[in-house]
Design a protein that fits this description.
Elements: H1 11-16, H2 19-30, E1 32-36, H3 47-75, H4 90-94, H5 96-122, E2 127-130, H6 139-155, H7 162-185, E3 215-218, H8 224-230, E4 245-251, H9 259-267, E5 273-277, H10 280-283, E6 300-304, E7 316-318, E8 323-325, E9 332-334, E10 340-343, E11 355-357, E12 363-365
Antiparallel strand pairs: 1-2, 3-4, 3-12, 4-5, 5-6, 7-8, 8-9, 9-10, 11-12
Helix pairs in contact: 2-6, 3-5, 3-7, 5-7
Membrane topology: Multi-pass membrane protein
GO molecular function, one term: oxidoreductase activity, acting on paired donors, with incorporation or reduction of molecular oxygen
Subcellular location: Cell membrane
């Protein structure tokens, strides 16, 4: 503010001035000329004014409703459990993320529209001309700017518009509650609850559903209808050449001819496994992980395709270097050293599936992974 203009009043004179006098003094000291300063609603209590107030309140109320809807969607128990695509309720489950985005987005949008409408309808649009200069603000300048702000608040009539204040508070409060619910939601899911079945966080589709159940390694031929009619293609020990890799999926005899079950085995995200047959010279240099020394079958090793970083598919295998690569963030894993990470952001080895060959020569899983696959979470031991 400018230090030029009329001589500033004394502290005693300043204390006795009312707001209008301070407004005038502040304008004079700042060299401000008010060209136009109309009241948004010169006649108070008109139908148009009340209609505008209700419209603004409506947008704030909608913001509150959508903010609360976001919290309800996030906390609704139906979302907490994964639904397989073959499950009739999968369609509703698949709407979880869109419902979160739409409800939160509409809460923010409605709150913003309400603020803009209130500004246009009730905040005075003054036209002034001011000569600006640099320098620190004096005490008198600070007092006059407070008067200007107070006057702007009164002229906007916010003090007497309780409907707008209540709905704006509700909208902002609901939106704040929605934002606060985001970190709280991470405490809702209990990874230990019902975790003994294949749908828990600790297990995959390779877990036997009853003692002694045989789970074969199955190819994805890309022709599901033919697999339903003629049967799936299982992997034998002699099918892969030395240095080759193939993605395999679990198959149970109980799934024979079952279109939904066969499709679900291919689409379940934690099912894909990289089956690698090492070259004999490379197999002789393998370093096995403690407690998993017998997880391989000869030159065959099976690792999950779910990267331990953020869950991307580690779909690349470099035969010459025996490295498993994740294309998302360039993590690399050494297939000769229990698939431990040697480059990139991943910090844990890929989980290894214990495998063997049955009496008919088919490669089968000896059981599920002994650790949770994919990205880490708080309850993991590693």
């Amino acid at each position: 503010m400018s230090a030029e203009g009329p001589e500033p009043p004394s502290e005693a004179e300043l204390a006795e001035m009312d707001r209008d006098q301070l407004l005038k003094l502040g304008g004079e000291r700042d060299g401000v000329e008010i060209v136009d300063y109309p009241q948004p609603w010169p006649v108070k209590g008109t139908r148009a004014e009340k209609r505008a107030e209700r419209r603004v309140a409506l947008w704030f109320a909608l913001s509150a409703i959508f903010g609360l809807a976001f919290v309800v969607v996030m906390a609704w128990p139906h979302w907490w459990e994964y639904k397989d695509p073959s499950d009739p309720s999968h369609t509703v489950y698949s709407l979880y993320t869109p419902a979160l985005g739409v409800s939160l987005g509409l809460a923010v949008l409605c709150l913003g529209i309400g603020v803009i409408m209130y500004t246009k309808k009730f905040v005075p649009s003054e036209t002034t001309v001011q000569q600006r200069t640099d320098g620190p603000s004096a005490e008198v300048d600070r007092a006059t700017i407070v008067a200007h702000l107070s006057d702007a608040g009164d002229r906007s009539t916010i003090a007497r518009r309780s409907l707008i204040k209540r709905t704006a508070g509700a909208g902002a409060g609901a939106l704040g509650l929605a934002v606060a619910a985001l970190p709280v939601a991470s405490f809702i899911k209990d990874p230990w609850k019902d975790s003994d079945n294949e749908n828990g966080l600790w297990h995959t589709g390779w877990q036997p559903r009853y003692p002694g159940e045989k789970i074969y390694m199955r190819r994805n031929t890309g022709n599901l209808e033919e697999e339903v009619e003629k049967g799936v293609t299982l992997v034998r020990a002699e099918d892969l050449d030395a240095g080759a890799m193939e993605t395999v999926f679990p198959y149970r005899n109980s799934e024979k001819g079952d279109h939904e079950a066969l499709a679900a085995a291919l689409t379940r995200v934690d099912n894909p496994v990289m089956l690698i047959r090492l070259r004999p010279t490379d197999a002789a240099r393998v370093v096995k992980r403690k407690g998993q020394e017998d997880f391989n079958f000869g030159d065959y090793y099976a690792y999950t395709k779910i990267c331990s970083h953020v869950g991307c598919p580690t779909s690349l295998y470099e035969q010459r270097t025996n490295r498993i690569l994740c294309p998302c963030h360039q993590s690399q894993f050494d297939a000769l050293h229990y698939a431990k990470p040697i480059f990139g952001p991943a910090t844990r080895p890929l989980a290894q599936l214990p495998i063997t060959v049955d009496d008919e020569g088919f490669l089968v899983a000896r059981g599920d992974f002994i650790e949770a696959i994919g990205p880490a979470f708080w309850e993991r031991k590693s």
